From TrEMBL:
Involved in transvection phenomena (= synapsis-dependent gene expression), where the synaptic pairing of chromosomes carrying genes with which zeste interacts influences the expression of these genes. Zeste binds to DNA and stimulates transcription from a nearby promoter. Coiled coil: none annotated. Self-associates forming complexes of several hundred monomers. It comes from Petrolisthes cinctipes (Flat porcelain crab). It holds the Pfam family Myb_DNA-bind_5. InterPro entries: Myb_DNA-bind_5. This is Regulatory protein zeste. Residues 186-213 are annotated as: Disordered. Residues 7-78 form the Myb/SANT-like DNA-binding domain. Transmembrane segments: none annotated. Residues 204-213 have a biased composition (Basic residues).
Amino acid sequence: MDRAAPLSQPQTMALLNLIKERVSIVHNKSTAPGILEAKKRTWEEIVLKFNALNPDHQPRSSKQLKRSYEHVKRKEYKKKIKVTGGGCHPTPPKATEEIALAASMMTVDLAMGNDVFETFNQEPVHDSSAADVYELQEEVVDDPGVPGPHRKRLEIEVMMDDIHKLEKAGKVRTSLDLQPSLLTEAGKSQQEHRKETHSGSQTVKRKLQHHLL
């Protein structure tokens, strides 16, 4: 696995600014050979400029910078899920500077309902493996302002969505093969939700019966 320490906030901002200057190419979803070649050259240029801006840090490869950008996009995607998901809406998290910049570049994609991962689904960032999906699990929403049950359901929704997108892109075989523990947890969560609903209904029923008596 091509792993490296996470980018610092200044490094992330430098990367996003380099991408913003070339966003029309980086976010171009065409699979035409000429466009794909232009995207490859653009990322090579981004890598050269990024490493030149950070001479005192470990040089990053195109694969690593793409993964870092994908991570920022995923954070923006999860923020959107928190705001538009079902149930009681939690207070939207305050956008960090890098998230705000990434969101500004993704405005058109999000407004059109396009998949925020399409940019990378057309050109896989790295080889598929269970570690890639477990890495997503480490990045699930963990906001103390969101009640535990809601946070757990949100976590499962985001994880399942991410896994299905990797599966659809051909990066993993099946969700069942890759994440049986997650699917089991999702089933438990649904069962717990049904129990909570049933318990609440029984309580209301008993109160009504008591009132009628």
